[in-house]
Amino acid sequence: MGNKTDIQYLAPVDIELRQQNKYCRFKKMGIDYIDYKDSEFLMRFLNAQGKILPRRITGNSLKFQRRLAVAVKRARQIALLPYVADNLK
């Protein structure tokens, strides 16, 4: 086996929670209008309970987050999206 001086310990893994740079998908893709009739697209910005995901998670700019919220609310009004859901995804 060897001497006790030969024991080498692994250095602790340097776990840094590296934040990925957030970017606005709408600006990057050049989208100017968020269509409230496209429910599959809007579902990407909802969690499992049907709530709108916040900007800090999605990375949207303030301008497009507001437009997204209006589009989701309009889709809910005409019953394309649910107001409340259990296991939406």
Derived from helix and strand composition plus strand pairing, the structural class reads mainly alpha
State Rg.
22 Å
- What is the H level of CATH, i.e. the homologous superfamily of the domain at 35-79? Ribosomal protein S18
Helix and strand string, N-terminal first? HHHH
Report low-confidence residues grouped into runs of 5 or more.
Answer: none
Question: Roughly what fraction of the amino acids lie in strands?
Answer: under 5%
How does CATH name the architecture of the domain at 35-79? Irregular
Briefly, what CATH class of the domain at 35-79? Few Secondary Structures
Q: How would a textbook summarize the main sheet? A: none
Rounded mean pLDDT score: 83
* Broad shape: flat
**Helical segment count:** 4
What level of helicity do the residues show? 25-40%
Total strand count, please? 0
Separation, N- and C-terminal Cα atoms: 54 Å
What is the CATH T-level topology of the domain at 35-79? 30s Ribosomal Protein S18
